[in-house]
Amino acid sequence: MTYFRAVDPFPLESERYTKLHEFYTRLGQGRLVTTRCAGCGRVAWPPRGFCPECRSDRFEWADLPGEGTVAAFTVQETGLPAGFDGPRVFAVVDVAGHRVFSVLREVAPEKVAIGQRVRLTPMRVDDDPEGKPRWLPAFSPV
After folding, report:
1. Does 9 map to a domain?
2. How far apart are CA 100 and CA 137, in angstroms?
3. The dihedral of CA 30, 52, 15, 92: what is its sign?
4. Residue 99 in contact with residue 55, Cβ under 8 Å?
5. 10 Å Cβ neighbour count for 7?
6. What is the reported pLDDT for 105?
7. Which CA distances in Å does 62 have to 26, 108, 133?
8. Which of 4-8, 22-26, 52-56 has the lowest mean pLDDT?
9. CATH number of the domain where residue 136 is located
10. What is the reported pLDDT for 12?
11. Domain co-membership, 32 together with 76
């Protein structure tokens, strides 16, 4: 199968394309991480290749907690991206003060509530063109 990068809806996770590839590697290990500026110490979400505060491009990886709370959500029943079964619950999850857009797994839409505790359960998506696994942030009820 031929993949075209210009229309690939999934993040580019290869070190060939981005210096943030470690985010996806660690996500595949069940860890949620982000970047901390090595210059001023600012922790950013989403992970960034440079600091918006001091403009440094030096960063280190910082672990975030594996649990958070649902801050907002929506249920999508039609028009889902290829490979996603419906209905799908998309949520904004508060993790240590950072708002993480994700998919909620293993929960019926009518059982989701604002303030609900959730745990990181990364979702594997289609492999990249070289056959390497790819991941998206996802959470499940605690």
Report:
1. no
2. 8
3. positive
4. no
5. 6
6. 94
7. 11, 32, 22
8. 4-8
9. 2.40.50
10. 59
11. no
The dihedral formed by the CA atoms of 127, 23, 17 and 14, expressed in degrees to the nearest 10: -30
- Taking residues 18-27, what's their average pLDDT? 88
Residue with tokens 């857009």: 101
- Main-chain phi, psi angles of 97, to 5 degrees: 85, 0
Q: How far apart are CA 118 and CA 34, in angstroms?
A: 18
Please give the structure tokens belonging to residue 8.
């690939």
Strand partners, 129: none
116, two tokens = 């609900």
Q: Residue 103 domain-assigned?
A: yes
CA distance 126 to 106: 19
CB distance 11 to 20 below 8 Å = no
User: Omega of the bond prior to 109 within 30 degrees of 0, cis?
Assistant: no
pTM confidence score:
0.84
Q: How many CB atoms lie within 10 A of CB 60?
A: 10
Asked whether residue 91 falls in the same domain as residue 135, the answer is: yes
Q: Looking at the structure, do residues 49 and 99 belong to the same domain, yes or no? A: no
Separation CA 88–CA 77 (nearest Å): 6
